[in-house]
Amino acid sequence: MQPLDITPFDRELAIRWADGDESFIPLETIRRFCPCATCAGEQDILGNVYRAPSRPYADNSFSLARLDRVGGYGLQPVWADGHATGIFTWEYLRRLTSAT
Ligand SMILES: [Zn+2]
Known about the structure:
Shape: globular
Mean pLDDT: 90
Radius of gyration: 14 Å
Distance between the termini: 19 Å
Structural class: alpha+beta
Number of strands: 8
Order of helices and strands: EEEHHEEEEEH
Bound molecules: zinc ion
CATH class: Alpha Beta
Strand content: 35-45%
Number of domains: 1
Largest sheet: 3 strands, antiparallel
Number of helices: 3
Low-confidence stretches: none
CATH topology: NE0471 N-terminal domain-like
């Protein structure tokens, strides 16, 4: 499933999907569900998750500095506090939509 259009607003991200659905995902939700190893923890081959110690968020942790596309499969947000290692696939973003 590919997005036709992605529009970042002040506090949320609007995504229009190829099937006509629209997602509005709060930026705070996207940041809290960041799938990178630092935020989500790393998994070993047995499926054990070694979660990194949770770091306190700063005032600007939920603001976007930039939004990069990663190939054809997802987005890599650059947050205003400098964090930029999370890659969000389209599938993951759609799942976040139903989680909120
Ligand atoms: Zn992260």
